[in-house]
Write a structure and sequence with these properties.
With about 140 residues, this protein is an alpha/beta fold. The chain has five helices and seven strands, in the order βαβββαβαβααβ. It has a single domain (about 5-135), classed as Rossmann fold, CATH 3.40.50. It has helices at about 15-30, 60-75, 90-100, 115-120, 120-130; strands at about 5-10, 30-40, 45-50, 50-55, 80-85, 105-110, 135. The strands form two sheets. The protein has a five-stranded parallel β-sheet, with helices on both faces. The relative contact order is 0.22. Belongs to the universal stress protein A family.
């Protein structure tokens, strides 16, 4: 199988566990691994110091998180890419899967129990709206 395995990360330990599962799956399938981070804010800040000017945004910070994880997961056997996607995590994963034609979305099982299971979670959102297969990785335990 070629194609894209998609995973979302947010800097948490459980998201990293899902990313590790996505790496293993993508490597086994001969697929590309695409790592994204969702962001909801449209905050932009301009910072000036002397003659230098920097524009910082929520999108930039999200992309840094995704870039770092993608770089850590890359190997000779695995091509990785990364990006930042506007929206809530579950919706952003679905939107990106549609955009890139992902074959599989990997999500963690965090918040799949108790009250959060009823109110919704990233995994529930993705499972109900995904345009492709969904793999739910066990991330609530090491």
């Amino acid at each position: 199988m070629s194609g894209i395995v998609l995973v979302g990360v947010d800097g948490s330990v459980t998201a990293r566990r899902a990313a590790d599962s996505a790496k293993n799956l993508a490597t086994a399938l001969g697929a590309e691994l695409r790592v994204i981070t969702a962001f909801e804010g449209a905050h932009v800040e301009v910072v000036e110091s002397g003659g230098d000017k920097w524009i910082l945004s929520d999108a930039d910070e999200a992309e840094k998180v995704a870039s770092k994880v993608a770089a850590e997961l890359a190997s000779d056997q695995l091509t990785t890419s990364y990006g930042a996607v506007f929206g809530k995590a579950g919706e952003a994963l679905v939107k990106e899967a549609e955009r890139v034609g992902a074959k599989v979305i990997v999500v963690g099982n965090r918040r799949m129990q108790g009250l959060a299971r009823v109110l919704g979670s990233v995994a529930n959102t993705v499972a109900h709206k995904a345009p492709c297969d969904v793999y739910i990785a066990k991330t609530d335990e090491p």
